[in-house]
């Protein structure tokens, strides 16, 4: 009997205009000059995602140059509608053979690969829903099994992401505070 390992893809949501940050976060770099997009892709790949899709929107032409070669770019043409547009674009572009996706945000440059690996450490399938928590506070990344993609895409609106859907469906909560604090970087560069 052969056991197959589910394929998991990563999605980085990086389509917003970053109005609170003074510009698109997809263009941001850390103090060492490393693009946040590189950090996000590295965390997803290092944590166990076989492939990664980066969803761009605002200033997509400029941001595309900062996407690592091992990631696939998806452009959310309706990015101005908010985070929901990026999430729908990412789910729509996910590989057909993936059982689940790990979704993270570009403005989490401190996300370690170990956090992604912990989210993926328990068995998963197309029905899986998992959400990172930090001292009980929900955050990112989240794991969304294929069976939920259409419902998640239908449930998001504007800048409201999948949080309500995950809560209503009883997503498994995975505490990650021992690995990282889950803090996003919303301020100006």
Automatic annotation (TrEMBL):
Residues 10-169 form the MobA-like NTP transferase domain. GO terms for molecular function: nucleotidyltransferase activity. It holds the Pfam family NTP_transf_3. It comes from the Bacteria. InterPro entries: MobA-like_NTP_Trfase (IPR025877), Nucleotide-diphossugar_trans (IPR029044). PANTHER family: MOLYBDENUM COFACTOR CYTIDYLYLTRANSFERASE. This is MobA-like NTP transferase domain-containing protein. It comes from Pseudolysinimonas yzui.
